[in-house]
Amino acid sequence: MALAPGLFFTTNYYKVTYKPIRDLAMFSRHLIQQRDAALQARFNPPKNLTCNLACLALYFWALLSIGLQPTHAQDHSATIELAVAGSPMNQNIKTTRKPPRSPASAAEDPNQPQQATSTGSPQIKNSHARMLDALNGIRRRSPNEHGWIGDGRARKLRSVAATIDPSTPLIKQRQIYYGLGMTELMLGNESAAIAALTRCHLLDNQAESSIPTSAKAQLTFELAVAYLRYGETQNCCQRNNPDSCIVPIQGEGIHVKPEGSTEAIKYFLKALDSTDSRSPIHLKARWLLNIAYMTIGEYPANVPEQYLIKPGTWESGGQVPRFRNIAKQVGVDTFSNCGGAIADDFNNDGYLDLAVSNYHPEGQLQLLINNQDGGFQNTTTQADLSGIYGGLNLVQADYNNDGYTDILVLRGGWLFAFGNQPNSLLRNNGNGTFTDVTFDAGLGDAFYPTQTAAWADFDNDGDLDLYIGNETTSMAKRKVEAPCQLFRNNADGTFTDIAQHAGVTNNRFTKAVVWGDYDADRLPDIYVSNFNEANRLYHNNGDGTFTDVAPQLNVTGPNISFPAWFWDFDNDGHLDLYASGFNSNATIVAADYLGVYDNTRQISRLYQGDGQTFRDVAQEFDLTRSHSPMGANFGDLDNDGYLDFYLGTGDVYFSEIAPNAMYLNRNGQRFEEVTMAGGFGHLQKGHAIVFADFDNDGDQDVFEQMGGALLGDKFYDALFMNPGFGNHWISVQLIGVQSNRSGIGARIRVVLQDQGTTRSIYKHVDSGGSFGANPLRQTIGLGQTDRIDRLEVFWPTTNRTQVFEDLPVDQTIQIIEGADMFTSIPLRIFQLGQPRKP
User: Fold this and answer.
1) Whole-model pTM?
2) How many C-alpha atoms does 647 have within 13 Å on its Cβ side?
3) Is the pLDDT of residue 814 over 70?
4) Are 635 and 643 in contact (CB under 8 A)?
5) Does position 476 have pLDDT exceeding 80, yes or no?
């Protein structure tokens, strides 16, 4: 994989020869060998991780290494002023993407090392207080040590830039300004980034003979991206509305302040005119050029013909009613970096609430309680959750069988060594409050970077066990050993890690773990999605051990894999498996939209199961488009009884944008993309996704946690309200007695008449996909039938099936394990965003 061609070093600067660097791995090793030993542990992506994220990390580190001298840097303004001719931007403008410093940290000197431990003081006996101490320590260390949001590099680079004078060689000036501009952009300081990159651009004109054309094109492209981001901040962030950043951009999504996009267009055109039509820079620039024209209402009319992406590209193959983003209306439009989300009933009032996390070390976990009147109330403080920071993902379960849904917060994903952070098990106390019991429960003995975990009763003893997928990496001069963990529930509020004995440590860079009993032997199995290594399917042997059968069953792909899930997409009663392919470079996605074939793209796998084996049917089911899914989940949008899915897309850097994608299941025979028609084509980085019926009208709305990994990539969460399709439904809440209280792992079968034919609909009780947690209460679409012939619930723990006959539709019911009758739950139906009149 080639390094971006704008990176050069002089012979007296780290003793790296001044020439274009083409081999990333070779260069990174060379640079690492010569870097100050004290800095080696800061942030080293793995050598064998050939994804864009790893490239970006090494790219930025190499780029910014000039600012990593072991000097005491002066803390400059976040909007450094540079005298740049021709720039229309006010260099002192502040952006809304940069968070205010919290009162607790305002007095701390970020240049001084912080005496804090990520483990929490062992002298603090209270588990909750110990966790708060640990998270506070991580927060204090982040400015200097966090690879994506820390500003330590920026402070050093500003100090270096302040030393530039007329005697400084032009090449060295270019290095400094380029590194500074890219770093400021990462932090969300678009004006400072534009100033530095424009200065660099002017230097290119003064040093034409020594700067290759490819390097100039790279810089021009980055300057265009910086302007595009500036326009986005001025419009989509500061003037956010339901149409913001949803392609095709129209209506209120058109920018009121066009300056950023107008300048971006100018530089994208320059980059296009100076590059080959199949080069990565050209493809990305063409893609973003069309987006930029859209934002100012000039697409397609004013796009140069040779660079125009035809309007038909933005049309969906299938038609559905438009889902409107009402997050702001109902009070769930949290503005944050990437994070997790759960929809479930946390106060047992029957109405679905939201828990939302933010991976930022100062990102407060949010608890949003459904007010039963079209909106949500933030009860974070009342719930004793203040100080529970961070968390890239969330999963829920009633781990102690007390009837209240608990929360697991997962931390450290993608952060390598800095990601050795504690997860949080938040016990629901049943009185509106939560207590962090991580250390008391035995989940805090070892910290590893992770973002994925799943609950299941793997030994059928009636309580839920926990599998956590951690990120093992190979690093220069040191490794992050992060074996996956299987915590057996001891039924006394504690857990024991038995992963080594069970044979499920994986020891790979794990991005998704999901449980599913694919062979219906009553023993849940584990699918593990690995990034840049083969995936695993651990078959449950029933004796406390597992065997990886992925190679025999041909479910090891895709090679670069991210979210995954078990489901029964064709309603044949057998679990199928979806494993997403992650195309980490926007060039691949752009090439796909432009009809240019790229043989490096990762196609997702749709493994159709028959109860024993799997067959990849992705191409047969029209799932061949390139995506870069991070958050992902499934549900039944149109209540036809067939499961649909939504992909939250993106990657770390700002140019890596593509519409999030919605696929509708057409009778279990094919999938049809309905992204544009349904209004789901959000361009912001999509993370945790939830399908849930928040207003009890029977159709599932879609919540999406938005925001990227970089400090400057925050955005508002989205809630797409389902307009309804006129089909019937039933919602089923299971209560385990001998089985786990959550009913996780139980199988539901609904038998009904559909146009004179008997058909079955199957649901397996869990929280859905690996990144985003659906409610454990299962909403099941029934199509046009007005009566259910039979509803069956199979409980694997007891090997018993409950059967209920002749049920009415359009209701929420509760089924207690072993009971002869179900109970109807009376819930008020309301419309989201429309409170009752007083």
Assistant:
1) 0.88
2) 31
3) yes
4) yes
5) no
